[in-house]
Design the sequence.
């Protein structure tokens, strides 16, 4: 207070009059925050978890917390159909000695046909933002580590017949499901045709050479991990 009085006595009269005309700012107003926080900020500020991708709505097959899982897919979009590539990890059972491999992991291929374009929307290029795919009626094919090895060995381009893989769901106890046939064949332009036939469903996705290299690179990385070898060092 003493310093304030001294300052007022030293300042010219014009400055003192201007200062006295300014109303003090309430303490609360100086630190006020917006009344409404943006929705995307409020969602995560409140501790709400990010939405889980629909493909992974089921529980974790390994029994670990879903917050520890990482979800990533690789998509190939074409005019008439699309293909999604994702990895399903191996499953383990617990014993007194530790974890024992129970089932190998797989590379799951999911095929979906393109929905009909809306009237007046035009056909548009593959992957167009206006194009949608019928993922609710997708057809799947799970590639084993050995089948991935066949792809990496070049069986898809080694002959005119390409690589043909058969899956009979009945052998896995899945009665009533059709036998699935996946054919990989090199086209005259160098692209690779991924054709899946399952009963009445016949879906074809032509994959470019670059896209095929990406799939092979993922397969190289995945094979030892699908066999459980990643856990040998990860759990030590």
Sequence:
């Amino acid at each position: 207070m003493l310093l304030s009085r001294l300052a007022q006595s030293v300042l010219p009269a014009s400055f003192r009059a201007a200062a006295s005309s300014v109303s003090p700012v309430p303490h609360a107003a100086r630190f006020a925050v917006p009344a409404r926080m943006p929705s995307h900020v409020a969602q995560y500020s409140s501790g709400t978890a990010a939405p889980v991708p629909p493909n992974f709505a089921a529980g974790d097959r390994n029994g670990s917390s879903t917050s520890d899982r990482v979800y990533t897919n690789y998509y190939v979009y074409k005019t008439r159909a699309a293909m999604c590539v994702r990895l399903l990890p191996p499953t383990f059972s617990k014993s007194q000695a530790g974890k024992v491999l129970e089932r190998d992991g797989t590379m799951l291929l999911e095929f979906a046909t393109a929905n009909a374009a809306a009237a007046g929307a035009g056909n548009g290029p593959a992957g167009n933002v206006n194009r949608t795919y019928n993922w609710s009626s997708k057809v799947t094919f799970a590639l084993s580590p050995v089948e991935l090895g066949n792809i990496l060995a070049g069986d898809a381009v080694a002959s005119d017949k390409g690589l043909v893989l058969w899956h009979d769901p009945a052998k896995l106890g899945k009665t009533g499901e059709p036998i699935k046939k996946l054919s990989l064949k090199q086209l005259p332009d160098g692209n690779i045709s991924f054709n899946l036939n399952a009963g009445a469903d016949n879906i074809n996705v032509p994959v470019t050479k670059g896209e095929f290299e990406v799939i092979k690179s993922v397969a190289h990385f995945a094979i030892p991990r699908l066999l459980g070898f990643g856990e040998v060092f990860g759990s030590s």
About this structure: Confidence is low (pLDDT under 50) at residues 27-64. Strands lie at 74-77, 81-88, 91-95, 98-103, 106-113, 139-143, 163-167, 180-186, 192-198, 201-207.
